[in-house]
């Protein structure tokens, strides 16, 4: 009866959401049709947690069910546990305190013999607030309205915001988030909140701002980036008349902080203070309207605008005590879901200690990873409270055991690739193993001596066009021996290369060539007419190279000379050019421990030249005396991959995860001789 009195008092608790002509409509039920039933269930103590979690995770049918339900679990020792589940559509954090306070009063009255509710009717309900909010804010398309001005602020504050954070994930982000979640709880210390509060008073800010700055600092050190958006809930009850209402008043603010430039923590705190105060001054705009105004790229894989959330409470949470009943604290039960990648909820029940509860997306993170993050956050807090002048680069985000794990004797030593260029490495292999097969192109076997001589002749030809050290050449050729010779020839002149994919539209090729600032376009007769511009076009036809020497040019290069300009898909939709030096590419295939590159390896070359990992495939064999088998065409062909792999005894393959999975399922024979397969970007089979 007492629960029914509370439901009667607060209209959101007796509201259902019906669908009419495909649109949801809310209907507030009369009290007599919305009396909740409190169910009782016996359960063994060891099964209690599982039963509570199952009850919390049971889905409401909001078309016919009111958004509140209760179950009393009776235990064998005579004690009982009350499970109260309220859908978030009808409540928020502040509402929980109101709900339990009203439930106590109603229970006391009913226990005393009251026949009806003793709770006063509310003069204002949530629906009144919603109508008032719409009236005050005005229309979004009216720049003179409150809402128009507020949205103008948020558009400016969030312009150019990265689509997502840069944290390393334990698993690739799926195309569609499952919203399955896990939960980690960590005590950060018995006196941490007291110290945070004292530090905040001294710095002229709030404890939340200190915690916010500490989280930004930790995220920056973890590799999340320096342009960080964190979501944070605010109560949304600016009017005292709303304090006694149950409903979903909470709003979410997007707090965007710039942590670039390696600031001290105190400098970062100043930035955070400004960001937070500005956001709090514009907190009346509902998040969904901000989202609509900013209009970021929408995807089912992640939350828009931010994927990391932070909340801080220091009021101890809702209390609940019933006369004649010995009660314990109100505890939140996880329902096994996660709305965000990471949701940090910090709470102090005594204004001294601090406890962190973190909900995480199980699609992306393992529990051990998140626990390590929370522990590190506690360490960052402790460090900045002691030394607010520390720069972010000086923050310790690893435990002693983790540092030992990464830097201890077992980790080995870095491989020194020296200062040798790609040219020096390749020419050394050609001199040592001149008769070894470098390329297999259809029915042709090209030796290292032949490939080196072909590249030397073309390099001399390119030099006659003025191509040299510090210049950039575009290579527009179909996969084959001529393509390989052209790439090597360009670096032999001292220039760098950018690879132009013949399968791309002319406009994209022209854009890449222009952005790269190419001086020379290296192409063949069939493709020469596709790309005209201010650059000089050089044909690779054999007749052009007759009579030129096949000896090495002898141009001295270092590891710091530019070698390759690769275009990747930028977050803005326009490809971005990434320049790699000779040392970068040499270390990619010689300074790592993820694969055995050697003279006995046969590497299948099938990736698009536009793929950023193509350099591994191209140079991995040629700098170590191995053999490259060239698959015809510009895109991987599963049947050809399988056929070439078996025919030539391919030992190394580089594949996208989707292609890898397809071959495993449909052409497993492709891996008969493969000893190393490189893949990534998404989950492998």
Descriptive report:
The chain is of the alpha/beta class and 685 residues long. The chain has three domains: 2-121, Chloramphenicol Acetyltransferase, CATH 3.30.559; 151-320 and 330-409, Chloramphenicol Acetyltransferase; 422-635, ANL, N-terminal domain (Rossmann fold, 3-Layer(aba) Sandwich). It has a six-stranded mixed beta sheet, with helices on one face. A four-stranded mixed beta sheet has the order 13-12-21-20, sandwiched between helices. Strands 15-14-16-17 form a four-stranded parallel beta sheet, with helices on one face. The radius of gyration is 33 Å and the shape is elongated.
What's the number of structural domains? Answer: 3
Which fold name corresponds to the CATH topology of the largest domain? Chloramphenicol Acetyltransferase
Instruction: List the quaternary state of the chains.
Output: single chain
Major sheet attributes: 6 strands, mixed
> What is the CATH architecture descriptor of the largest domain?
2-Layer Sandwich
**The level-1 CATH class of the largest domain:** Alpha Beta
Structural class: alpha/beta
> Radius of gyration in whole Å, from Cα?
33 Å
Unreliable runs: none
State mean pLDDT (0 to 100 scale). Answer: 89
Q: Strand order within the widest sheet?
A: 6-11-10-9-7-8
The percent of residues in helical segments reads 25-40%
Shape: elongated
What's the name of the CATH homologous superfamily of the largest domain?
A: Nonribosomal peptide synthetase, condensation domain
**SS field, number of helical segments:** 20
